[in-house]
Amino acid sequence: MVAILAALLSARPLHAQGNYEIQVYGAATVEPKSTMVELHSNFTPDGQKHQIDGVYPTNHQLHETLEITQGLTSWSEVGFYVFTSEQNGHGVQWVGDHIRPRVRVPDSWHWPVGVSLSTEVGYQRAVYSPDTWTWEIRPIVDNYQGRWYWAINPALERTWHGPDVKQGLGFAPGAKLSYDFNPQISGGIEYYADYGRLGSFDSLHDQQQQIFVVTDLNVSPKWEINIGVGIGPTAGTDHWIIKGILGRHFDWKKPSLVD
Amino acid sequence: MLKLSGMAVSSTVLGALAQPAAPADYSIDIAPYDLEVAPRRSIKTIAYNRQVPGPLLRFKEGRPVTIEVRNQTNNSEVVHCHGLFLPSEVDGAMEEGTPLIPAGGHARYTFTPSPSGFRWYHTHTFAGKDLHKGQYTGEHGFLFIEPRDHPGRYDQEIFLALHDWDGELASSGDGAMDPVYSVSTINGRILGFGEPLRVKSGERVLLHILNSSPSEVHWIAFSGHQFQVIALDGNPVPRPQAVSMLRLAPAERVTAIVEMNHPGAWVLGEVRKHIMAAGMGIAVEYAGSSGKPRWDQPENLLWDYLPFAAEGPAAAEQPGVVRIPLVFESKFAGHGAMDRWTINGKSYPDTVGPILTAGRRYRLLFINRSTNDHPVHFHRHTFELRRLPDHPEIQGILKDTILVDAGTRVEVEFTANDPGPTLFHCHQQNHMDTGFMMLFRYA
After folding, report:
1. Does B128 touch chain A (CB under 8 A)?
2. What is the pLDDT of residues A193-237, one digit of tens each?
């Protein structure tokens, strides 16, 4: 009982970026004059069951996140997020908003792997995350090799306002490995973690570690579909999460044969 | 002619120290070359005689010639004379039996050129994922076989080669990887770099345009002017037509007369904006005119083979013509790979080629069940277009390369009149490298 209580007290809510938008980024950016609209739906069947430091428990929370990404140039984009949460007893609540500019290495550089860099800043309400203002910088490297695809996102996070403001940079990597079964269906695993402060990682017990089994359905260039089930084996992690991403690409360019 | 050329032919691959017996009519050195496509922009490539395109080879029909080829690269090479009726051992495809020229070695090709018209020569080697080999290089040049009677009076003759450079594999709309290019040129230079084409008002200019691109179809317009198309793939068309735009698939050629009747400075170039922006254009200046050349951007892509076909209803398919269906399909190899290509369900070298009987007429049914267009090329023979998508039977257009659009069917006929192994393949380098080839044999 004491051990359980200690685990509950030490458990930290996931950063808003991670728990509301569970995605390993690829290096490609949205093309100019086009927009990607994505709905991230994440449900926690087995998560934190107790309110800690005024933060709502994550158990049975349904997070719906609207992400709108506008292509700026052939190598840059900017994304906006609206985070919401729905839970018995709390109803549908607005959680916060983020903005995420991103640049990538242009094709003309002929790098052997895709490389991009995003930075994300935003606010989330204290009842959902004790750190209300956060910043993240996320290098992204990815590559296709035949039927295999891999991506790594060794993200660094910084709290600007909240209890962790003096903790410095936190290390929160993500990674993905998937295999193309056919042109329409890919499957693989995604890994998400928060190791804690850079240079002084939390103990494994307190780290957030999640592994998702995912599938990507490439039914059309206009649509993006990602579905996954994740397990969090450490005490600092929600134990089960179901996630889904439904994206629709909108092209604002006037159709022309000669472009 | 065919028997004579067969007797006259010889191909010898020599070691680096061997000495040729007699001077050749032409010499081609294959060697690394820095191609300056634009100011302060060079592309490291391989070229013939350190120029792009290579030297113009001008032959007289029926008069034997000898070409000396020296390979100064680190890889084996072979030179294919495209569109000629050559014996397999000098046609320039190792699949047919032409010997490869080893690195540092040389070879002599002796043959009797035929048929007359605008042909070309190029490397016929494997590139795979290396987009700096094979047809991705500058190894291409014009080859013209003088006809006994020229198909039109002209004042000036100009050869133009369309090419794409600096390729890399990128995801394409069909989910597979395909080459994309950052530089596109005419005669090895981008628009605005190098000398313009200089013409005079009232001239009739004979343009020979070749698409030597490893994989891209190109649409060409000449602002202020029209093309009077007189030959396709070097073969005179039954009905020359004036058109505002040309479409050339890889390996296709168009010969056209342009009446220089609109003085000024103009651009001849790619209709699609992103390829024009990559450089595919050339300025044309009338005598006494200067300044920025004018480009009138077309808003549509216009091309049809049909108007060049013989007038009136075509003769029905003759009894005794043997039909050979060839079904083109792709096999998915991953979003990070190029598709594998199959003909009748198999990829080269496992493709099962037909056995031809000399003297017999054949109809090839190109059935493209893929989502890619394919410029298919038949070596050592000329075929006649007989049926295009959504058209009745036609006749009179003779070609060696035809673009079969995605999801369509094209029918051609040819007479088996040049015995020997004969290669059939898609002329997109990445397609032929991934299985899209078949070897026809004679009984």
Report:
1. no
2. 999 999 999 999 999 999 999 999 999 989 999 999 999 999 888
Which pLDDT score, from 0 to 100, does residue A16 have?
36
pLDDT in tens, B63-115: 999 999 999 999 999 999 999 999 999 999 999 999 999 999 999 999 999 99
Question: DSSP 3-state assignment of B306?
Answer: helix
**How many angstroms separate the CA atoms of B398 and B195, rounded?**
34
How far off is chain A from B311, nearest CA to CA, in Å? Answer: 30
Is residue A69 situated within a structural domain? yes
pLDDT at A57: 81
Structure ipTM: 0.83
Contact status of B44 with chain A (Cβ, < 8 Å): no
Q: In what order do the strands lie in the sheet with B383-387?
A: B340-343, B322-331, B361-368, B409-415, B383-387, B398-399
Q: What pLDDT sits at residue B1?
A: 28
Mutate to test the interface with A, among B44, B295, B303, B335 (most CBs of A within 10 A): B335
Task: Identify whether A257 is part of a domain.
Answer: no
The total domain count for chain A is 1
B241, burial (CB in 10 Å: exposed 0-12, middle 13-18, buried 19+): middle
Average model confidence (pLDDT) across chain B: 93
Domain interval for residue A7: 2-251
Query: Chains A, B: CB contacts under 8 A, how many?
Result: 58
Structure tokens at A78: 């900017």
Residues 2-61 (A) with a CB less than 8 A from some CB of B: none
Measured between alpha carbons, how far is residue A257 from residues A161, A254, B249, B282 in Å?
51, 10, 17, 22
DSSP state of A109: G
Residue A259 lies in a domain: no
Closest CA relative to residue B88, chosen from B314, B379, B328: B379
Residues of A in contact with B166 (CB under 8 A): 110
Phi, psi dihedrals of residue B176, rounded to the nearest 5°: -105, 175
CA distance A258 to chain B (A): 4
Cβ of residue B41 closer than 8 Å to a chain A Cβ: no
Dump pLDDT digits (tens) for B312-350: 888 888 889 999 999 999 999 999 999 999 999 999 999
ω into B115 cis (within 30 of 0)? yes
Prediction pTM value: 0.89
The number of helices, as runs of H, and strands, as runs of E, in chain A is 2, 14
Is A58 inside a domain boundary? yes
Query: Residue A119: is its pLDDT beyond 70?
Result: yes
Residues of chain B positioned with their CB less than 8 A from the CB of A149 = 335-336
Domains along chain B?
A: 2-146 (2.60.40.420), 156-303 (2.60.40.420), 322-442 (2.60.40.420)
| CATH code, domain with A109 | 2.40.160.40
Number of alpha carbons in the 13 Å side-chain half-sphere of residue B18: 15
Give me the amino acid identity at B292.
Answer: K
